[in-house]
Design goal:
Length: about 140
């Protein structure tokens, strides 16, 4: 997860180009490694087994773990009725649990980066955060 977190921020580049409004958060969907297994054969040669592409797509569509990559200026400040928020808040770089249906999938990338590595993201309201987790691999 730590390597994926670093890769997500690298692929997104400078997020100051994105201005989230009000109470919204931008989260990047956690997608587990496409490598199912790797190791050495009895003859000493290496092998790698990859998951089918449909498994990666399903993780994107139904992924419940996400990385907070940006926050609007009033996220975790006020409840919808205007009352001051006094609970715990997440911060950029936290892994969180969300309902995938709470945000529409968008793809973002650093326009200066080579290649076509887009990051699957969702824009969600802060109240859609269900919990914070240390390791997104524990969430299914």
């Amino acid at each position: 997860p730590e390597k994926q977190k670093q890769q997500i921020f690298k692929d997104l580049g400078n997020l100051k180009d994105f201005e989230l409004l009000d109470d919204d958060l931008l989260v990047a969907t956690y997608v587990d490694s496409e490598v199912a297994a790797s190791g050495k054969r009895s003859d000493g040669s290496s092998f790698v087994l990859y998951k089918p592409q449909s498994a990666t797509q399903e993780a994107r569509f139904q992924g419940k773990a996400a990385l907070v990559v940006a926050m609007g200026p009033t996220a975790f400040k006020y409840h919808p009725n205007g009352q001051l928020y006094e609970g715990r808040a997440v911060k950029v770089g936290d892994w969180v649990v969300i309902h995938p249906s709470d945000g529409r999938e968008i793809f973002l990338k650093d326009p200066k980066a080579a290649g076509n590595d887009y990051v699957a993201c969702r824009r969600i309201h802060w109240s859609s955060i269900l919990m914070r987790v240390d390791d997104p691999r524990r969430v299914y």
